[in-house]
């Protein structure tokens, strides 16, 4: 292994650890909090979390082995199963993010009719579509033998291992697959979150007008208080932009390099570095590690749930230690009396 492969291997290990721990924490919060389970977005987050966990446990370690050993462990049948899961889980995760953006769009743009437009039944229908969509492309790729070990990405994924006369079909399938997964999800993300940003900026502008009118009326207000109000205005305007930029930016940063590489790979005239192929795959894997923070753990509701769980664990451990000390004290008194 050269230095680049060592660095990439270390990166994959870090992604596996962070993704596993963070997604497990999200799952624990979902199980612990009845309030989170009642909310419709919780279904999308649960589906996304399971996809990320399965990808972390099943696909990432095998990619790490492929980087180290330059080959995939197991036979062709095993590699096809892994490739099927890789295609299914990645597609399902992308569409789950799109579903989350649609939920936020309805909640912000149509707040009064949100509970009638987005019910648990509607969320289940959306999740059903993501599963049918994901299973369809994954099944077609396996049935046409377009799944196998790809040396460029050191993993079992889409690849044309059959004769040259199937190349055109494989190119069409790959382009359609990425257009209806990555590109479709990106368009939905941009449309919905930009609408959300527009509404958020409108509300911020109204609040700013009220704040400025209040500051004008309060002539004798202290300059420091006035300055804090103006700073809060600025932070309020930036907060929504940062959130929207994070949602769209992480999606593009993690998935776009891999998707573009897969499309460029279809042209045999453009050589691709093996190191870049693995790096682009690692970037796609890193989305599974960032999703828990982007969609869950940085929100106040999940942070409060994590704090409640930690407090309960610490309280229980302190009670157990107090009980043990009490029992030790009683045994010591009995022994002394005897």
TrEMBL record:
Gene Ontology CC terms, in alphabetical order: plasma membrane
Residues passing through the membrane, by range: 6-32, 44-68, 126-149, 169-196, 244-264
One Gene Ontology term from the biological process aspect of the record: adenylate cyclase-activating G protein-coupled receptor signaling pathway
Membrane topology, record value: Multi-pass membrane protein
Subcellular location: Cell membrane
Source species, domain of life: Eukaryota
Gene3D superfamilies referenced in this protein's UniProt entry, alphabetically: Rhodopsin 7-helix transmembrane proteins
Domain G-protein coupled receptors family 1 profile: 22-295
Record carries keyword Oxidoreductase: no
Keywords, alphabetical: Cell membrane, Disulfide bond, G-protein coupled receptor, Membrane, Receptor, Transducer, Transmembrane, Transmembrane helix
InterPro entries the UniProt entry points to: GPC_Orphan_Receptors, GPCR_Rhodpsn, GPCR_Rhodpsn_7TM, GPR26/78-like
One GO molecular-function entry: G protein-coupled receptor activity
Function: Orphan receptor. Displays a significant level of constitutive activity. Its effect is mediated by G(s)-alpha protein that stimulate adenylate cyclase, resulting in an elevation of intracellular cAMP.
Stated name of the protein: G-protein coupled receptor 26
Protein species of origin: Acipenser ruthenus
């Amino acid at each position: 292994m050269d230095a680049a492969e060592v660095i990439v291997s270390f990166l994959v290990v870090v992604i596996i650890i962070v993704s596993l721990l963070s997604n497990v924490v999200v799952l624990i919060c979902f199980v612990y909090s009845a309030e989170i389970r009642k909310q419709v977005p919780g279904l999308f987050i649960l589906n996304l979390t399971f996809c990320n966990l399965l990808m972390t446990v099943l696909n990432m370690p095998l990619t790490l082995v492929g980087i180290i050993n330059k080959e995939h462990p197991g036979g062709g049948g095993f590699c096809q199963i892994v490739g099927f899961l890789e295609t299914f889980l990645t597609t399902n995760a992308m569409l789950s993010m799109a579903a989350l953006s649609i939920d936020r769009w309805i909640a912000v743009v149509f707040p009064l009719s949100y509970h009638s437009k987005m019910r648990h039944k509607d969320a289940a229908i959306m999740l059903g579509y993501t599963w049918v969509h994901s299973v369809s492309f994954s099944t077609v790729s396996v049935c046409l033998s377009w799944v196998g070990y790809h040396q460029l990405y050191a993993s079992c994924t889409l690849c044309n291992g059959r004769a040259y006369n199937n190349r055109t079909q494989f190119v069409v399938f790959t382009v359609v697959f990425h257009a209806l997964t990555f590109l479709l999800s990106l368009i939905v993300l941009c449309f919905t979150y930009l609408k959300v940003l527009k509404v958020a900026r409108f509300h911020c502008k109204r609040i700013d007008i009220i704040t400025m009118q209040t500051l004008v009326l309060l002539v004798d207000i202290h300059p420091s208080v006035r300055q804090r109000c103006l700073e809060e205005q600025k932070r309020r305007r930036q907060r929504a932009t940062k959130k929207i930029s994070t949602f769209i930016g992480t999606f593009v940063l993690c998935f776009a390099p891999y998707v573009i590489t897969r499309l460029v790979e279809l042209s045999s005239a453009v050589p691709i570095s093996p190191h870049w192929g693995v790096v682009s795959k690692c970037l796609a894997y890193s989305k599974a590690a960032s999703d828990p923070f982007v969609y869950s753990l940085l929100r106040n509701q999940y942070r409060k749930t994590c704090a409640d769980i930690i407090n309960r664990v610490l309280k229980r451990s302190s009670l157990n230690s107090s009980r043990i000390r009490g029992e030790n004290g009683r045994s010591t008194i009995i022994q002394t009396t005897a």
